[in-house]
Design goal:
Blueprint lengths: L2 E5 L5 E6 L2 H4 L5 H14 L59 H17 L3 E4 L9 H10 L5 E5 L4 H7 L5 E5 L5 H6 L2 E5 H11 L1
Parallel strand pairs: 1-3, 3-6, 4-5, 4-6
Antiparallel strand pairs: 1-2
Length: 206
């Protein structure tokens, strides 16, 4: 089992923690890591591009002039595509960009991402975030002490003091252990996680 140091919020080592190899010591599957990232980014797309066809624009309920005898070309509606204000011929419509990934693949991808952070020594375990107040500057000092200026901060439960202290830091994101995903883990340089959050992740993925 891999062993990592446990730090307090001052950045001092206070303990050691053995990590479960079934979660933090697996063989990294780059194919599933890529698939997980592509799936997550695709599922976040709204696909709201839209334009109206000739049947959807207003007006054009009758022929603008009679069929024959006017010298004009025949026209059926003033909302045909060739008219100003007419509908679009092949109008774009809202599209579903979502992709699917089965549960087993997601689990392997999460484990691979976590293992990569451990291997890169960017997996920083904190005993607890015992914050006295909501203050961004104090949280910046904590991250500086942990040498993790760009970090994904993971707690077991929702901690308002952590979330509100970190929300104005552009290089930091907070989440709970139950909501971790591959894209966020890989997108941030370091993974700062509480000791109880590690236990919660091992309980789910081991």
């Amino acid at each position: 089992m891999a062993t990592v140091a446990v730090y307090n919020i001052e950045g001092k080592e206070v303990d050691k923690l053995e990590l479960n190899d079934n979660v933090f010591g697996v063989e990294i599957n780059e194919t599933l890591l890529h698939k997980a990232v592509v799936t997550q980014l695709a599922n976040s797309r709204q696909g709201t591009q839209s334009a109206k066809t000739r049947s959807e624009v207003s007006g054009g309920g009758r022929k603008p002039w009679r069929q024959k005898g006017t010298g004009h070309a025949r026209q059926g509606s003033i909302r045909a595509p060739q008219w100003a204000g007419g509908g679009v011929v092949f109008a774009p419509k809202p599209r579903d960009y979502s992709k699917k990934m089965n549960k087993r693949e997601k689990q392997i991808a999460i484990k691979s991402a976590l293992t990569s952070k451990v291997n890169d020594e960017k997996f920083i375990v904190v005993d607890e975030f015992n914050l006295d107040e909501i203050k961004t500057s104090n949280f910046v000092k904590i991250l500086d002490a942990l040498k993790a200026p760009k970090a994904l901060v993971v707690t077991k439960d929702n901690d308002d003091k952590v979330v509100l202290s970190a929300r104005n830091i552009p290089t930091v994101k907070t989440t709970m252990s139950a909501s971790i995903n591959v894209y966020d883990i890989l997108n941030y340089d370091s993974l700062v996680i509480t000791k109880d959050a590690v236990a919660a992740i091992e309980e789910v993925y081991a």
